[in-house]
Records
---
Amino acid sequence: MLTDLTPNESRVYSQGGEDGVLQTIYDAIGTTGKNFVEFGAWDGKHLSNTANLRLHHGWTGLLMEGSDRGDGELVKREFISAENVEALFEKYGVPQTFDLLSIDIDGNDYWVWNAIERYTPRVVVVEYNILFTRDAATTIAYAADHVWDKTSYHGASLAAFQKLGTRKGYTLVHTDSWAPNALFVLNTALPTDYKPKSLEELAVWDELVAPPDTGDRPWVNV
């Protein structure tokens, strides 16, 4: 069921076809408590990877947004860093094992996922930077106060996230064909007959869609 997820792509609220792919993944691996965490979450609907699950499938969870789009009720206004992410999970009562983590903060995405050690999401969705060749494992240098300035200086490459996911015990199962988002499943949740695909087979995006960085800021190979 998870061999080729592209035909299952469909959009309700998500940026690309993540809504349909997530439904297919959970049909295969099941859920524990239908809990999610999503940041940045905008208004809780726009380009959301969790709105369809929350509004139509009985899921609950934590939505966080660093900008003033966070209203404090549905979407908590929190600026997330590697230093505070686990404290925020504790503050809002996130269970140690939960079903879905969605990361899209256009900056320290790699470093924030790297910092999550005491919590185990079964599925992770993360936006990656398509500036790099498919074998380049590269991320922006960490700066806790980083805010995206609409240039190409943001996030990390797909290969960087794959290396991080592998180290954390995840398998890359899909990259969306509509938007540069990657989906990882916890190895212990995967069906026993699942056969992983190579990065070359899964990578579908390789074009730059943001203006180049003019600040000559550092990149880090990981």
---
Amino acid sequence: MNRKRLSVIVLHTAENTRTSKLIANCLRLDPAEVIFVTPKPDQAREEWKSDPRVQVIEQPFRLFMGWTVGAKRATGNTLLFIPTDDEWDQAALQRFLMPILYQQADAVLAKEDHRRNAGRKLLVQAWGQLLNGLTGSMQLQTASLYLAPFALTKEAVQRIGEAHLANPAAFHYKLCNSGLSVVSQMIDLGRAKPYSPRLYGCLHTELSAYEKELIGDHLAVIGHLPPRGAFSDGGRKRAWINRLERNPAALSFSFQQGRSFVRRELYQGKRLSVIIPACNEAATIQQVIGEAAQIEPAEIIVVANGSTDQTAALARQAGASTLELSVPLGVDCGRALGAKYATGELLLFVDADFAIPASDLYPFALALSQGIDLALNDTNYYPPAHIAKTTSLAARYALNALIGRTDLGVSSMLTVPFGLNKNALEAIGWPRLICPPLAQTALSLAGCAISHAHRVEIDRLNRFRPEKHLTVDTLSLAAEQIVGDHMEAFQYFYKKQEVYGILEH
């Protein structure tokens, strides 16, 4: 390779016995220079220093700041960035660089084989998938600047700005929106990377220093995007909900009290309210109510909004109370309205378009009665590879990591059934329920007890709607709304962090 073309920037990210071999392999690429950025220049080997192409630059440790330092020093018109995570043989690096050296791309990002997805690596891939979804770069899948190596033309670096390399998420976002050609290359070490306790060490319920940096970088990008990242809101009647919150008497709707259900003190003296939003669900509503009635609720509330069939009448026949509105409130708003008027201390939320057996509903109510504030459906039955390459699931995983609950995986208030303690709801306000990821974030920040209660695989039960779920090469309408909901939650967290410094990195 022409040494006038290539500058290699090696960032010291971990103590590693393979660093010497990495530097040697980089030199075999015949670069103009190898720039080694390290907080410990005294540890640079003499054999590196003796090669005039090797520059050792001291940089006090702050993860990724070294990319900026190295890029500013580089003289080549192609820049290859490598951390000291592995030795990376010459042949692998040559293959990786081919698109950029043959002028087929301005940037080459790495993506890893999903089948080798293990442990906390999933967080890196989830954020990569999410960021590429935000920029409309779905073809890049999980590729990101956090999966090294990556390569950029000097022109691309100068157009975006070297300073942005200190936040790889910000550079990535600007790069994908710049009009430059960005491609991804599969990488596969075939072996485990060296482990750095300083970077990756933490308890299972905590975030490592690396993860805090990663999340903080992405949060800084999302926090400055338009509200919801400009994604669809799913037609929610937010103004209607806001008016109701300010003045409950200002809006009128029909309420009819249902019958009293048999109760045997299953819940330590607490009352259970089951809330079912519904729109044109006459075919299933009575079966849904029938299952819910078996777990001895104090009341079942059906919020019939925008129905033109007999949903409300059939619900009343089955003994449910009904809140009836002529207009559809939009997704999740019916849950919020039902929660506002529920009288029970324990709230259980189900959908009206499919019946969940009573045996699968009861654990959620039981968990609430035993002190859990938010009882979630455990939806961690997806393979990690599916999570990594599905933007809506990647968003769920990223949000749970943000609130320090990687143990929740992709479980979310987006998925029924879930249970909520009325006191916890009052701590965040019932209108928050119109955006489930935001509600989950607010509950976490309020210190509420959040836990899995049971696993119900609702993918087998949920109704498939082609107009919402089908798409080609873009996010579906349903995925757009889900991603937008998570953007709303991320931005809420970002504002809280600005005030309280929640996420230190």
---
Amino acid sequence: MGTTRIQQFVRVSENTYRYASIAVALVLTTLPGLVGLLLLDRSLGNAPLYALFLLPFAPATSAGLFALGAPDDGDSTFRTFLRGYRMNLVQAAGIGVAALVVLTIIAIGVLGEGRVQLPAAYRVGLVVIAAGVVIWALLALVISSRFAFRTRDVARLAVYYTFRLPLVALGVLGVLVLAYGIATLTFTAVLAFAGPAILWLLQRCCDPLTRDVHRRFVRPGAGG
């Protein structure tokens, strides 16, 4: 009984350290964006700046997913996060830019004032498209953090699995709603500290996706 309790304590301590390391890494890598988001007024004219300050979250998300999914090779969690950050920086940033450009255009269309008023149904449609874009981006970041595919292949696979695995897409939407709720009810910085738990939920939601990608698109014996 004593040995079991010690093992449980060690496991809890390791998980706590891992969580804390990823949380600190997320805060450090998103700090410029966090500061900018806290200082910006919530006005339509700042939509492009919001997109700019949200961009650091894309590579940070990819690195966090990489650290959570990496096997225990004796390296520290913080170093594993940084390794994933360096490996996926360009690809994750490209995914983030593509998504944020579309989301900025949609935000201007939905929230625009003083111009031609859009019908309510059209605005609802734009909101649905925006949700789809965010789901696509998160699926793409999950894929890029686990597999060494070309960016265009990652983008295509993310579109494909958004429709092939609708329950996964709904799960990702639920994680997105949770993250939005945390950021809205508290403040954006809290989201970075809660990031490891949110990324863990995202990773669990996407387990069927990663298994299917590995089975169908990774050659036997190849790393993934």
---
Amino acid sequence: MVWSLVDADGVVRLVNTRAERLLGRPRGLLLGGAVTDVLPLTDHAGRSWWDVASPWVGLPTRSGHRERVLTVPGAGSLVVSMRYVRPVRSGPVERVVISLREVRVDAGPRPPWPR
């Protein structure tokens, strides 16, 4: 699993090696940057996912979002999920944990399940 950690100010603080490879950018260019610039996710309609999801504003009961296919310029389509970390229930988001993985296209029919 590829992951990244973003702080309360939207700054990327931690990135694993697989994220570097998947995004095609070295860690030095990812760390310390605004997540909206470093990981400019867009949905199928071309909208900024950061504007749509808005982890740091909105309902304080949200804990993240499930996997969805989003696009990153230069990296193509990725399956993305996020977990919003709130140390205090309904408190402000202090960290966002981002999980990324490649989109896999099914190569054909699968054999039936054993009965």
